[in-house]
Amino acid sequence: MTEGYRDQFLREGLLDPTPRGAEVELAVGRVRVHFAPADREVRVPAGVSVFDAASWNGIAIDSTCGGHGTCRKCRIRVLDGPAPVSRLDVRAFSPEQLRQGWRLACLAAAHGDLAVEVPPLVTRPKAATVGVGRQVILRPAIQKRYLKLAEPTLADQTSDLERLLAALDDLQLRVDLHALRRLPAALRASDYTITAVVVDDVLIDVEPGDSTARRYAIAFDLGTTTVVATLLDTATGTPVAVRSMLNKQQPFGADVITRISATMLDPEAIERLQTLAQDTLDELAADVCKQGEVNPAEVYEIALAGNATMTHLVLGVPPEPLGVAPFILSTRHWPELLAADVGVRVHPRARAVVFPSLGAYVGGDVVAGMLASGMDRDKRLRLFIDVGTNCEIVLGDGERILTTAAPAGPAFEGAAIRCGMRAADGAIEVVRVADGQLRLQVIGDVEPRGLCGSGLVDAVAELLTAGLIDRSGRFVPADRARELAPTLADRLTEIDGERIFVLHWGGVGEVREAIYLSQRDVRELQFAKAAISTGWSLLAEELGVTPRSIQQVLLAGSFGSYLSPANAIKIGLVPRLSVLRIVHAGNVAGEGAKMALLSVRERSGAAALLEEVRYVELSDRPDFNDRFVDQLAFPA
Amino acid sequence: MTEGYRDQFLREGLLDPTPRGAEVELAVGRVRVHFAPADREVRVPAGVSVFDAASWNGIAIDSTCGGHGTCRKCRIRVLDGPAPVSRLDVRAFSPEQLRQGWRLACLAAAHGDLAVEVPPLVTRPKAATVGVGRQVILRPAIQKRYLKLAEPTLADQTSDLERLLAALDDLQLRVDLHALRRLPAALRASDYTITAVVVDDVLIDVEPGDSTARRYAIAFDLGTTTVVATLLDTATGTPVAVRSMLNKQQPFGADVITRISATMLDPEAIERLQTLAQDTLDELAADVCKQGEVNPAEVYEIALAGNATMTHLVLGVPPEPLGVAPFILSTRHWPELLAADVGVRVHPRARAVVFPSLGAYVGGDVVAGMLASGMDRDKRLRLFIDVGTNCEIVLGDGERILTTAAPAGPAFEGAAIRCGMRAADGAIEVVRVADGQLRLQVIGDVEPRGLCGSGLVDAVAELLTAGLIDRSGRFVPADRARELAPTLADRLTEIDGERIFVLHWGGVGEVREAIYLSQRDVRELQFAKAAISTGWSLLAEELGVTPRSIQQVLLAGSFGSYLSPANAIKIGLVPRLSVLRIVHAGNVAGEGAKMALLSVRERSGAAALLEEVRYVELSDRPDFNDRFVDQLAFPA
């Protein structure tokens, strides 16, 4: 969906063609691992396996099992440092090889500084590119094992389950009753050759014969407005189908506050909101399965990234404490969940990964976004902004990471704007002034019906450039306008005593049928951008850095993807940096959800983020209002 | 229910009035713990806490929390042996005390031989007597904790769940989504004073205010014929209500084989059998809650002991492999289960303990029975017999324990017997010959309608004594009968060419209206008792002991409770021992289920039994048939 605009922005030179994520470096960590012959040294958290330390840093080690300890291909030699022998090492190596330091990299944890030698590749590691240009070694929680078991006899009355688990003795499994119910028939229907379906450490099913090739998962980005589902083939890491739809909770209000309010006014509202969110997810799941020609029963895991309110509602947890001071989450980390707990009818015992929240207004969507954009690993000072009604801001250098939420209001959604509308067909989304002429780009290439968030930012920025709006946000007087921009000045007029700038005259040239930008609209945008810039300027202060020293700004969320970096700088929504440093990060929440499904290591990285990132509450800061007023003016 | 007969047997001197279980001693184990000043030395498995080692052996150590590490009352001093300092010891003792060896007994694991000193009691440990005279220290999996939490502020935005878990930091808890859904409202409804409901290591609910006094559990004995439910107050260990009813699966057949066959013939039968068993349990649960005036939502855990077929059926696991050679269980240990998984509507997230099975015909009921009768702890050579259609036999001395199943057939249930009936109103259950007169005891004191299992055994035994049946099992010729027992001889007659002995003539003295014992009935009983005695004689041989050296015989199950020990010896169903050594053990399956609910230690003892007990399969023994034929005659 966003690709067309991305291409256009690339052509216009507004977007940096280099994917920044490709440059990520590991930043948090306590031990050093030196890899020969590549002569690369990396720092990783103590306890990380050598295999992961290598794969996180793009150093390829042979593996066909993705680091599960089963293929025994990830042989490395420890040249220096602690290297205890694991239970699988003694099967994989001779005593002489063990003495020489040979170990399986996936089981060799780096508990101290290490120097290791990596033999040349024989097979290629399986990896997928997700998130902001991140390469993820495939290590999904979903595992399938094809097994040929011996038939029982009177002399060997081992129970069905113990027979199966003995063949999976490298895993410490819990067993779902569903799998046990299916086991006796599955074994006897297929001459004791079956496929065990494991998710994390749970045996959730057994399937007769060999079904190892088919293992799917669905990543959900549960937005307040839009919900996106991606069906993933976890065997290859590739997306099979993507669908999006409006959140069916829309009738309860456009933003999270109106939905929380609904649950306060009506005790039955929470159940209805839960059902509507669950129906949205379930319908999308059915859609992507149909589109991808996958049986829903072959989907064994889902991941869900949403803001705290959406996550509470879809799980049926009361959201009221999120909506009133002191803004309290029911929990940061969610307990073990099933897809059924969020109403998604795929495999009946499919499991669900729901992203944890950092705070009432820095939810799982932002945690997923941080994961996808490598906020915890990139050593550059980076600013992450998910622009929306509630705007989440993250600032960090990999070592120290701060986050906060800024109440931007609904301007970016097109609400509270005179001619505002959502980014749908008929919305003016790009506004340019060139050679004294106004040029509009309209979604769907149809007659303009209104102005969406990106169009609003563009219109204000272009009129600032043209001088028709001054730094304080006022439309200049008519005579000054004629002087500065004679070809545009007649568009500056009034309606009901309020000054407006007409963007599109409509059929008969009547001002009442026109699409315009009003003085009050400019004020709304000023409030919104001031909330955001107050947020990141306070975070910068907390971190002891200046906004100008920020090396990269990631604009995230569906709105961020459409925003012109140059105009975002122009109105002061982002710090004044080279436009090349402003990067569209795309749907990072959805990308984070995909990463969690493709790699258990990345998933645990998301959980670790909660300990690494500090949430800064702005609402109780005495200096917030002064700062906010200071930020209302547009930059010089 | 059985108490009346127990009293009667006691009066008759047929039952040993001393509860044998009171003498149990710990027999399995690897380390020695010496207790001063009592000067008692016990052997326990390495790793067992000193607290448990003491309580298992009747040595009282102060405790009000039941060994959960919270009351800090269980102070002991380690005089000799390894005594690492636990995390709670440093809070409970001064450095000087720690140097002197003071430790909390509940956290002090005996990893080597120990000598400890136990201070005199200040409070009494809470214990309950269950099983075969066993004293169980209360340590239920259900725990309730009343907590007063600090209210959140903008300066302390800790999430609701983390706030709660911080107050439970001595427990490593998993959290049920249900508890999380209730948490925000519960906290805010009660000024942050709530009761946490924990079962095992799972937080299943939170309740506003202090509800710690109310914590209930239900123990089920799921029999093929009869199902018994006991509502337990886990705070005191006392049973609050007991109810029983027929298993609603009865229409599918009287024994497990007919029910397994039903699932083979009709693919939908398993679902119907599952529903019927679940309905039985659920109806009983509602009954005991009503009787005990307990809200079903206050029942947080259930335990279920049943044979392997019943357990498979109630869980919806296909039972077919149990019914055909090589007789394979789907599993020995069941996975983590909820009461809802067996259809019991109590607390929606109540958990379920389902007893594991040793083999297809030595099920969870027998494992529960072994637990209740202390088969793993009593050092005497003991024989445990659960008499029924399928008869389970256990022989052991605490160190070595063997078990097997004997296909006794339905004679003991009154089936396949000409005038047979279940032990219900109208069934002749006791038959005695005294002073040449036949005396009958009929259930319900009504007109006799038939002969139940215990009446069958009595009738045959008494006629053996009177000489009317010879050792080979034949009725003696009429003239010989007149010689031996003139007052009874006219009862020996014929019907349709088969010889019979009339027990009750009915209204008009017509043989066709009589209740009688037929020659074929005697044969059925011979087959049944031969199967059983072949079983225990083979187990004795495997163990290298003679049946005469057995020190105690436990007759278990509802049938065993009604059986006359003297007549059981007479017909050779049990070894020829002093009648005082034959003990009615009662409903040991139900008692075992209660023990599992009252003590997590006892529960893990049940799981441990599976590793300690060896299952001996009789059906593939080449000498089984010869042995069986040898056992058909009655003892001299």
Automatic annotation (TrEMBL), chains A, B:
Stored CDD domains: fer2
Record domain 2Fe-2S ferredoxin-type: where: 31-122
Pfam families registered for this protein in UniProt: Fer2, RACo_C_ter, RACo_linker, Raco_middle
Name the UniProt record assigns to this protein: ASKHA domain-containing protein
